[in-house]
């Protein structure tokens, strides 16, 4: 009887799944053509980054055998494009945001494709990393600006959360393929051809084609075609503080968080890809929820949540990394699982960058300020990122990995100060 009951459940489960797929398809079909093209751009770009940027630390370790100190130094050419982002966006001010996104993707394709087909000397590799990173960083401010322009203002938080959710979902899909490729021996960073990078180049090229179609559909007005080249206002001082702090937190997350797993625990790209799958799967639900919480509870409450998440995550990272380095924690068994949990929570806490973008849109003196201010914010956070990467390598080498994370946790109290003091219109 129990088996019969189980078999009887199958049609009901199939019907529910079919109805869910149909509902999602109807929801997508109800969107404007411009929004659908934008979602395609986000999906393809996320897939491309999943095959390249998300596993770049393993590339440095496997292909070039870098030390923790060298890993910090590599961040200079990687983060320099972010530091000059405001200047480059200002120089391209005559173009619309979609056209800048097209240029950004062209740089990304060029850099990662050459890395995929060759194993260049270290200095040439750094130059190609710079080209690829320039494209990624140029896309960051215009990505949010295009999304804001296409979203309806009354549901801004919800729509932006959906955009971020699509990005996270396709990052998870990329992580599944990366995990399978490395686990089955199809991918390797020691081979002459680095297939993950070649695939990434093809995906980002497809996103570039979708951007060209988007520009033809909506024109350069999808964003801020007529915007000031450079904006610096005292009204945005708390936003500037948030992005500077994010420069510290992001660098710890991107560089030293994975390095705990790679250097202290000896984990490979397949393990990081698997953790990326878990984090992205949770993010599919978490990021849209952040958007809904923004609309429901307001920006200040979410600023508090953002600050407390960073403080908690980096305090835990300090405890576990110090335990591994001293031998107090084993590098097998449950202590390793603890590191995995902290790694996933770290990725989720950085997904709350949506809060800063909506906060800027809320306090914007002029809507045309948004893209210029986002690009300036990226430049500011990358100045801090470069300094933090170099200083973090020194701290890790001289005093131990735990102090890198304790310092990040202490600095995150600045986010808490902003949550208390920042003036926020409305609620």
Give keywords.
Growth Hormone, Chain: A; 17 helices
Structure, described:
This protein has 427 residues and is mainly alpha-helical. It has one domain (29-421): Up-down Bundle (Growth Hormone, Chain: A), CATH 1.20.1250.20. Helices cover 80% and strands 0% of the residues. It is built from 17 helices and no strands. The chain has helices spanning 2-29, 33-50, 56-64, 68-83, 85-91, 97-117, 122-150, 156-183, 195-218, 237-264, 269-297, 299-326, 334-350, 353-363, 369-398, 401-411, 413-421. Helix 8 (156-183) packs antiparallel against helix 11, helix 10 packs parallel to helix 12 and helix 12 packs antiparallel against helix 13 (334-350). The longest helix is centred in the C-terminal third of the chain and has 30 residues, at 369-398. The protein is globular and about 55 Å long. The termini are far apart.
Amino-to-carboxy terminus distance: 57 Å
Domains (count): 1
Percent of residues in helices comes to: over 70%
Tell me, rounded to a whole number, the average pLDDT.
80
Quick one: CATH superfamily?
MFS general substrate transporter like domains
Query: What string gives the helices and strands in order?
Result: HHHHHHHHHHHHHHHHH
**Mass-distribution shape:** globular
CATH class: Mainly Alpha
Strand segment count? 0
Q: Can you tell me the CATH topology?
A: Growth Hormone, Chain: A
What is the makeup of the main sheet? none
The helix/strand class is: mainly alpha
CATH architecture: Up-down Bundle
| Number of continuous helical runs | 17
Given as residue ranges, the uncertain stretches (5+ residues, pLDDT < 50) are 1-10, 20-26
The Rg value, from CA coordinates, equals 22 Å
Strand content: under 5%
């Amino acid at each position: 009887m129990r088996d019969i009951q189980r078999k009887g459940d199958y049609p009901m489960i199939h019907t529910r799944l079919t109805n869910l797929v149909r509902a999602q398809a109807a929801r997508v079909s109800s969107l404007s053509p411009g929004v659908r093209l934008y979602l395609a751009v986000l999906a393809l770009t996320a897939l491309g980054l999943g095959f390249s940027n998300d596993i770049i630390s393993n590339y440095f370790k496997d292909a070039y055998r870098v030390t923790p100190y060298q890993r910090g130094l590599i961040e200079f050419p990687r983060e320099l494009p972010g530091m000059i982002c405001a200047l480059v966006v200002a120089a391209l001010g005559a173009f619309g945001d979609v056209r800048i996104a097209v240029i950004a993707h062209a740089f990304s394709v060029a850099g990662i494709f050459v890395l995929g087909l060759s194993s260049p000397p270290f200095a040439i590799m750094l130059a190609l990393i710079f080209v690829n990173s320039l494209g990624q960083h140029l896309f960051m401010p215009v990505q949010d600006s295009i999304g804001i322009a296409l979203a309806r203002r009354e549901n801004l938080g919800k729509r932006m959360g959906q955009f971020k959710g699509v990005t996270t979902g396709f990052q998870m899909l990329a992580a599944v393929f990366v995990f399978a490729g490395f686990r089955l021996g199809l991918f390797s960073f020691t081979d002459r051809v680095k297939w993950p990078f070649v695939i990434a180049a093809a995906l980002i090229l497809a996103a570039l084609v979708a951007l060209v179609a988007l520009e033809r559909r909506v024109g350069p007005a999808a964003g801020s075609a007529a915007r000031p080249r450079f904006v610096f206002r005292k009204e945005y001082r708390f936003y500037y503080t948030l992005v500077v702090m994010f420069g510290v937190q992001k660098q710890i997350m991107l560089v030293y968080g994975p390095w705990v797993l790679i250097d202290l625990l000896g984990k490979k790209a397949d393990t990081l890809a698997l953790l990326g799958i878990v984090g992205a799967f949770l993010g599919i639900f978490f990021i849209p929820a952040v958007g809904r919480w923004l609309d429901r509870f307001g920006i200040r409450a979410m600023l508090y949540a953002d600050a407390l998440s960073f403080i908690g995550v980096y305090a835990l990272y300090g405890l576990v990394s110090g335990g591994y380095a001293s031998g107090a924690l084993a590098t097998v068994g449950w202590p390793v699982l603890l590191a995995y949990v902290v790694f996933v929570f770290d990725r989720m806490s950085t997904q709350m960058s949506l809060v800063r973008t909506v906060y800027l849109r809320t306090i914007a003196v002029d809507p045309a300020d948004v893209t210029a201010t986002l690009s300036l914010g990226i430049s500011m956070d990358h100045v801090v990122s470069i300094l933090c990467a170099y200083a973090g390598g020194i701290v890790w080498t001289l005093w131990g990995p735990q102090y890198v994370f304790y310092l990040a946790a202490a600095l995150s109290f600045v986010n808490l100060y902003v949550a208390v003091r920042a003036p926020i219109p409305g609620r």
